[in-house]
Amino acid sequence: MDTKANYNPPLFKEGPSSGEPLQEGSSLPEEFYRPGMSFYFLAKRTFDLIVSFLVILCVLSWLLPLLALLIILDSGMPVFFLQKRVGRGGRLFTCYKLRTMVPNKEADERAALEYDSRITRLGRLLRRTSLDELPQFFNVLAGSMSIVGPRPHMITDCRFFASVIAGYAFRNHVRPGITGLAQVKGFHGPVSEIGNIFGRYQWDAFYIRHAGFLLDLRIIRRTLADFFLIARHFIFIRKYAYKNAESSLGARVHGDKDLYQ
Questions:
Q1: CA pair distance 242, 250, nearest whole angstrom
Q2: Which residues span the domain enclosing 85?
Q3: How many domains would you assign to the chain?
Q4: In this structure, how many other beta carbons lie within 10 angstroms of the beta carbon of residue 174?
């Protein structure tokens, strides 16, 4: 049987015994059959296992309890937000995130906008720095995600994007990632216009067709650089705001003294 001609992943499905797929994708790209790709996928999975284990052990073991405490103090329970996302082969999996919105019935149907009233005060910081995605290292360790790959979408977004782009399920050929090429190219966050959907899909498709360990490392390096740049930006804003407040307070006190002279 010609695997190349017959592998068409569905847009999404509940499991191996589910019914007919909602939409058929395109065949496995020719680039997946070039020499060395089997070793690449083995090396990629090995890299995912080692890095996710180390991140969980060395970083999340102390950072998650701290963030959990801040979330509870800011907006109460629950700490985590669990949502069905579309993974490799169109299979649904439970994606782990830190909760950044108040509990609401539309969480699985309506994506959060930039100034969405459902987002908590701490949630804005977590979303801006992508710290809310940290629990997805558990998804990577479990095998439902990879560190690098197209970002997983919730079901309603998948339906909508597939109605706009024919063959959208092409991105289901690989495991979804915590970060991806589309994200480091600036296509992240809420979709504000149709052009953003096409931009994301084009970079996701480019990544799948040119998948390689060097490309993965470049994406990880760019992701880390962007994270530290955003963190530095927030620290600068806080220092600037503190200095302004201090100056305003000093000027106000000085002005009050002048009243009694």
A1: 12
A2: 3-259
A3: 1
A4: 23
